[in-house]
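Hey, quick one: can you model this chain's 3D structure?
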Amino acid sequence: MSAKALAGELRLPLFIIRLDGVITKFMGETAAKLRLVFDALIETRGVYLFDEVDALGGERARSNDVGEIRRVLNSFLQFLEQDEPESLLIAATNHPELLDQAMFRRFDAVIEYPLPSPELARSVIRNRLANVPVGRLAWKTVDEAAAGLSHAEITLAAERAAKDTILVGNERVTTGVLIEALNERHARGHR
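Sure thing. Here's the predicted structure for all 191 residues.
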């Protein structure tokens, strides 16, 4: 969401780099695909998001590391240092503890998003439900269901509750529909 907001504010296109499409089992092919991404980064001004970068930037000193992925990480770090493009590069992870420390030195800023407090979770829910009628919500129950979810997961749950309410023809989003959507986000996170 931050990358989308930055792209909007900067009036630049947002490019999301899906690492599952970049990382391959063939030696050297992953680095070649990364080179294409960094060439595009120089050629086309935009906001480039490397999502789930821990798949690429894992600690090189780990004993279970594969040599090829270590070479890919080295290539990625070198690409980061080579040019000063007019593009904005963002890397996101839910597991910063897995990242090689060299990754942190290559970026100008590191922003951590802790899990939202109940007050902030309520604010996210109110914001996402602002355009749909909402019944009287049992906030204490909602707080309990939202605990442990990220901003993005709470946003998705609120949007899901609104869609479900509209699709079944109900007049208002209810506590039950919202709790169901929040519980679904918890279930998805534990798969």
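One thing worth noting: The longest strand covers residues 14-18.
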